[in-house]
Every structure is written in C-alpha cells, then in structure tokens.
Specification:
This protein is mainly beta and 221 residues long. It has a single domain, classed as Beta Barrel (Porin), CATH 2.40.160. The chain is built from one helix and 13 strands; from the N terminus they run H-E-E-E-E-E-E-E-E-E-E-E-E-E. An eight-stranded antiparallel barrel has the order 1-5-6-7-8-10-11-12. The longest helix is centred in the N-terminal third of the chain and has 14 residues. It starts with a helix and ends in a 5-residue tail after the last strand. The mean pLDDT is 84.
Length: 221
C-alpha cells in the first residue's frame, strides 16, 4: 500500500510536466514464459515452465521528454501463474494463475524512435484466481475465484527490457510479492499446504506492438 501514493504522485507529475512534450499511446500483446523461485521449509523447490499467450495486453501512455529520454505509465491485464509439485506430497501437482490488473511506471532511455531500453515498476491487483490440482497426473480439483484470499491483494514487481523496431519488445520481470498469501489455510482435504510454499514468479516475455495511438505499428505512415 505504501507504493500507491508513489504511483499517484508519478501520474500527477507526468500530467503537469507533459506540456510541450511528445505524448502518445502504444498498445501491445505479450507472450509470457514464466518460472517461479520456490522455497519450502528452507529448501529450494523446482518449478515448471509455464507458457501463457493469452490474455495479456497492455496500453502505455508515453511521455517523451526528448529524443533519448521518456517516461511511461498506463494499464495492463496479465495472466500470471506457476506450476509446481506440492512439497509435502510429490504426487500432487498444482497449476495456479491470476489475472492481474496492472499500473506500470518507468523510464525509457535510448533512441525512442528506434531501439531503447526501459526500466520500471508495476503495481498489480489480482482480480481472478484459477487453480487446478492433479494427483498422479489426474485432475482432482479445480477452483475459480474472483478476488481470492489465497493470493495477496496487491503485487509489486520490477521489470527491464529492450524495445526493437516496430514495437517488438523483449522483457524480464520479477515479482517481489510472493504468489500465495502468507498464512492462508485451505478448506479442502487434498493436502495442499500453501503456507509452506514461498513462491516468487519471474518471467521472460516477447511483446508485439499492435497500435501506436490509433494507427497500426506496421503502417509506414
């Protein structure tokens, strides 16, 4: 919650100082390849690569201060999750994900009309949780919950990436907030122990530009 005033201050600052600057929007999709840094009772656990091509979309408001430096903020919807085996029972595999509504803030450095790097922070609000539990590779349970108490109400993350011509972007992102809510106690009898798992999701992604303002990225005009 401490980051909320920072986000509001950033947005206000960008509006005040956006006069006489180049301001435009960009919309892009995202192909996400995610893992998780998982520990259980002090020991490291392995996660499985998770590919989430849908539904990931973001809209950035870009405020270019010069040809080589700019700011951005905006709004995103993102599919984030992990796949892992239950640490207390290796026969149990869990697939969990949330749809997050995000507010990014960051800076861009480089040739802003061609190639540049960007660094940023994003505040995300998990709005929908989905979970599948497999025992011996057979699906035993499924849950879909709006605003679930199995995950934190807010996620904090850091990102870095490079933008290539025509809106193609390579990005790395790390979630500072653990995926599962600390102290959550499940009501089911499947033996899942969420409180024993400390999992931080991170991912690599390929972003592809869709629109710049109201025009398509690949339109020569």
């Amino acid at each position: 919650m401490k980051s909320v005033p920072f986000v509001c201050l950033f947005l206000l600052t960008t509006v005040v100082f956006a006069q006489d600057k180049k301001v435009y929007t960009t919309t892009s999709g995202e192909l996400i390849f995610s893992f998780a840094d998982i520990t259980s009772n002090g020991s490291d656990q392995s996660s499985v690569l998770r590919f989430s091509p849908v539904f990931n979309i973001q809209n950035w408001v870009n405020i270019d201060q010069s040809e080589n430096f700019g700011l951005f903020t905006g709004l995103s919807v993102r599919n984030i999750g992990l796949i892992y085996k239950e640490p207390t029972n290796s026969n149990v595999k869990i697939k969990a994900r949330t749809y997050n509504l995000g507010i990014p803030v960051g800076v861009k450095i480089g040739n802003l009309s061609d190639k540049f790097i960007f660094l940023g922070y994003e505040l995300e609000f998990p709005i929908h949780y989905k979970e599948k539990i497999f025992i011996n590779d057979e699906k035993e349970d499924k849950a879909t919950i709006w605003f679930s108490d199995r995950v934190p109400a807010l996620n904090h993350s850091l990102m870095a990436g490079i933008q290539l011509p025509y809106g193609a972007t390579l990005k790395f992102k790390y979630y500072l907030t653990p995926f599962f809510k600390e102290g959550y106690q499940p009501s089911d009898d499947l033996g899942v122990v969420y409180s024993a798992v400390d999992a931080n999701v991170f991912y690599f992604s390929l972003n592809f530009g869709l629109l710049k303002d109201t025009g398509f990225y690949y339109n020569d005009k």
